[in-house]
Task: structure prediction
Amino acid sequence: MRNSVSSAITDHSTHRTLLTARLVLLFTAATILTGCATDEAYRYYATETYPAKDAREVELLSEPPSRPHEVIADFQARGASASYMRKRAAEIGADAVIVVTLGGYRSPHEKWASDDSHSTSYTRITATAIRYKEGP
Result:
């Protein structure tokens, strides 16, 4: 009798361990497949489509260039990086992408921006894809 009770407890424990392992594996796979960027939105303004480019050909800017250009799209997301936004801009044929980060973490003990230990953190990233205009 004791062996059958012990066997049933061991079987139940093994079943729980396998179920937990499956759930962890499923969660990990879902995370990998969905990527890190969430809450994505984009708006395409151009009246024509452009061929995709290699992301390395797209300039990464932090402010609008002085060179004449047209805005072809805006992107925004949470959890994305500047390189991710650059890839999105490359997919639509942009010459450059202007990336701005917004939000971030703040410590209640840091009242001045110069004391901000989280100055490189952000919660949202926006990007404006542009194409340079030809001529003067």
Notes: Residues 2-34 form the longest helix (33 residues). The first strand starts at residue 38 and ends at 44. The beta strands are 38-44, 59-61, 69-78, 96-102, 124-132. The mean pLDDT is 75.
